[in-house]
Amino acid sequence: MRALPASVLVVCGLIASACGGTGTGGAAAGQAAPATAAEQTAAEQTPAKQSPPDAKPLEGKVVVIDPGHNGGNYRDPKAVNRMVNVLTKWKPCDTTGTATNSGYSEAAFTWDVSKRLVKILEARGATVKLTRAGNNGVGPCITERAAIGNRAHANAAISIHGDGSAPANHGFHVIMPKKIKGPVDKVVAASSRLGIDVRDAFAKGTGLPYSTYVGRDALDYRNDLGGLNLSTVPKIFIECGNMRNAAEAAKFQDPSFRQKIAVALANGLQHYLKA
């Protein structure tokens, strides 16, 4: 049997009320009548309003990741040893980087961590640019690495490294720029905030200690790095640990620990970018 329209049922109800009747199961005067079957069905079929999904936390942010060195640098010493001006001095275009005692190179380590970091940041909504496309090439020079971040108008840039110190030294540290009466001066304060946020997230996320041999509380301020001196966007370097220390080298060669490093770096960047 087809149900009567709700409007007809309402009219009938009003007529019954005017006659003073309540009917079996009816409502007493002054009380709301229970919903009819047709009204209940209509309500159930009406789609509930849903709030829009939360925007990705890093939507609209641009991050430049600089994986230190390059896997093919050793093949072209002339190119990487070419001197470039970093404003406070002249330095080689790039270096080969360090390696663990077993031969796992800094270039391979930084490239792997960087690729993992790209995926995490992009999943959080950021636009991410790398300073090199792979781990088999040469360069780019430290001057060009800074320029890539500048051209991208990055909200934050980070250069990822592993140190090569004496075997007994251990721990990580973050390197931030100093004022040099140059292009970096206007972002020195912002770079310091970025560095502290990354340090805190890195320590929490990896469990690695502060460096025992560089800086204070894992913070080191320098004016001799071209990647920082020439940057016009907030930028830092991180030495994730000492690749010549056996314990830290073992961690860096573990893919699951490299993932942990990438997540920690993403969290530090996000904390800074959302502040």
Description of the molecule:
Helices cover about 40% and strands about 15% of the residues. It has nine helices and eight strands. Helix 4 packs across helix 9 and helix 6 (about 190-205) packs across helix 9 (about 255-275). Mean pLDDT is about 85; it is low at about 1-35 and about 40-50.
Computed over alpha carbons, the radius of gyration is: 31 Å
Share of β-strand residues: 5-15%
SS class? alpha/beta
User: Mean of the pLDDT scores?
Assistant: 87
Across the major sheet, the strand order is 4-1-5-8-6-7
Q: Assign a percent range to the helix content.
A: 25-40%
Q: Total number of β-strand segments?
A: 8
Stretches with pLDDT under 50, minimum 5 residues: 1-34, 41-51
Instruction: Report the end-to-end length measured between terminal Cα atoms.
Output: 63 Å
Order of helices and strands: HHEHEEHEHEEHEHEHH
Largest sheet: 6 strands, mixed
Query: Count the helices. How many?
Result: 9
Shape: globular
Q: What key phrases describe this protein's structure?
A:
275 residues, alpha/beta, six-stranded mixed sheet, two-stranded antiparallel sheet, 8 strands, 38% helix, disordered N terminus
Secondary-structure map with pairings?
Elements: H1 6-18, H2 37-45, E1 62-67, H3 77-80, E2 83-85, E3 90-92, H4 106-123, E4 127-130, H5 142-151, E5 156-163, E6 173-177, H6 188-206, E7 219-222, H7 226-229, E8 235-242, H8 246-252, H9 255-274
Parallel strand pairs: 1-4, 1-5, 5-8, 6-7
Antiparallel strand pairs: 2-3, 6-8
Summary of the model, kept short:
With 275 residues, this protein is of the alpha/beta class.
